[in-house]
Amino acid sequence: MASYDAFDPAVEINGQTVLTIVEEAMGKFSDEYRKRALAALAAEGITEPAADEWYPQQAWLNAFETIADDLQPHVLDRLGEQIPSVADWPNDFDTVPEGLQSIDEAYQRNHRGGDIGQYRFESVAERTGEVTCENPYPCPFDRGLIRGIAQQYAPVDAFVFLEETGETCRRNGDDACTYTVYW
Question: pTM of the full predicted structure?
Answer without folding.
Answer: 0.92
